[in-house]
Design goal:
Elements (H helix, E strand, L loop, with lengths): L3 H11 L1 E4 L5 H20 L3 E2 L8 E2 L11 H4 L1 H11 L4 E10 L28 E6 L9 E5 L10 E3 L7 E5 L4 E5 L30 E8 L3 H9 L5 H8 L5 H9 L3 E2 L9
Parallel strand pairs: 4-11
Antiparallel strand pairs: 1-8, 2-3, 4-10, 5-8, 5-10, 6-7, 6-9
């Protein structure tokens, strides 16, 4: 794992960072097996769905409600990274999911006030981060993440493809411009394609390493920024609210989280019931 000073400094300077090798290769293979098993469970419960222009499988219900996968959020290595980035005890608030397959592309921000320097998100002390754990190699293959450097502090930035390998933990400020399912070109594998990416013919693309599987989950501080995000973003999404309602969580999970220094906030009363 990278030293804390390296990834914390990188995060604050660039709006994102990667911690290498958080999970071992054997742990990643085990997670792939568990994702395959969990999606069968969720499909049988009617919790899987698709979206237009995407071949990915999406799943309703928070990640903490997925018995085979909830340990990722509860992993002390993950919690420790969040703690160092936030310089505070991290808060989890039901914003976690897993995906299978190739999803949507296109630069966007995840925060509430998405126009640069307009709104309270752009005041000092913004404190909400999103983490991604990819279960395959994207250092040499398509399907990973690209970001615009320091776009959490300015309108835009230089676009870069992130060299994420299986087991790495990548995280970004919700204000950072980023795009998933990034294409790598066979002739220019490190050149980010920001225009016409969706129209690139398959013969010019580097294939994905394996069937794409990924986890995404968010942490914050128990502060005004989180309160605004819950009120003005998370709970404005009807599908997100429905997913929170379909997230039964054992009481032992809340106890385990608290023992590891992770606070779980219920965004709605039904969450976890």
């Amino acid at each position: 794992m990278d030293s804390s000073s390296n990834f914390v400094e990188s995060f604050h300077n660039n709006g994102f960072a990667i911690v290498k090798g958080v999970f071992s290769k054997s742990e990643i293979q085990s997670l792939r097996d568990k994702v395959a098993a969990q999606v069968k469970i969720d499909k049988a419960k009617g919790l899987t769905y698709s979206v237009s222009n995407s071949s990915a499988t999406y799943v309703k219900g928070d990640l903490l409600s997925k018995e085979l996968l909830q340990h990722v959020i509860l992993d002390e290595r993950v919690i420790n990274v969040a703690k160092q980035i936030l310089n505070n005890e991290p808060v989890y608030f039901g914003d976690g999911s897993y995906q299978i397959g190739t999803g949507l592309r296109g630069y966007h921000r995840d925060n509430t006030d998405r126009v640069f320097n307009v709104g309270k998100d752009w005041e000092e002390g913004y404190s909400i981060i999103r983490m991604g754990l990819y279960l395959q190699n994207h250092k040499k293959y398509s399907g990973g993440l690209k970001v615009q450097i320091a776009s959490n502090k300015k309108e835009s930035g230089k676009s870069v493809l992130l060299d994420i390998e299986e087991g790495d933990l990548v995280f970004w400020d919700l204000r950072t411009l980023h795009s998933g399912n990034a294409v790598r070109l066979k002739m220019l594998p490190n050149l980010p394609v920001d225009y016409f990416e969706k129209r690139i013919p398959d013969f010019l693309k580097i294939d994905e390493d394996n069937i794409r599987m990924a986890f995404f989950f968010s942490f914050g501080k128990n502060d005004a920024h989180l309160e605004r995000y819950l009120k003005n973003s998370l709970l404005k999404s009807a599908s997100m609210v429905e997913g929170l309602k379909q997230s039964p969580i054992l009481s032992t999970v809340f106890v385990d989280a608290a023992n590891k220094g992770l606070t779980i906030v219920k965004p709605i009363a039904e969450y976890g019931n």
